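[retry 2/3] Heat shock protein 105 kDa: previous attempt timed out, resubmitting with same input.
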Amino acid sequence: MKNGGVGIKVMYMDEEHLFSVEQITAMLLTKLKETAENNLKKPVTDCVISVPSFFTDAERRSVLDAAQIVGLNCLRLMNDMTAVALNYGIYKQDLPNPDEKPRIVVFVDMGHSAFQVSACAFNKGKLKVLGTAFDPFLGGKNFD
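[retry 2/3] Heat shock protein 105 kDa: success.
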């Protein structure tokens, strides 16, 4: 790219095009936005986007830039394991009341090349991330 950034060269309609990472990500977000709008039958303007916990500040800013390109107001970037925990807490009906001892749940993600764990405490209407750990060099490929 002219600005020194990373570019992705593709052939599109028999022409070579150079896209930034933000533009490629915006294309993906556009498709996701269209799918959501078709299913909801109304416009989508706000979103929360999950990103890998190991994303740097620059990578997180690139995701925010991509959302802006699409016209999405990103309310929050959320670490992927926190998003998993939030989803668990939203749908779990038998969580302890706020005045009771919380339920501790550990979420494990063993990907192809990385391993991450998050420990969370749940009460009805409350999620607290107790701790996270990440190993970028341990994954399923190590067990093949």
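[retry 2/3] Heat shock protein 105 kDa: The helical segments are 21-40, 57-70, 80-91.
[retry 2/3] clearing retry counter.
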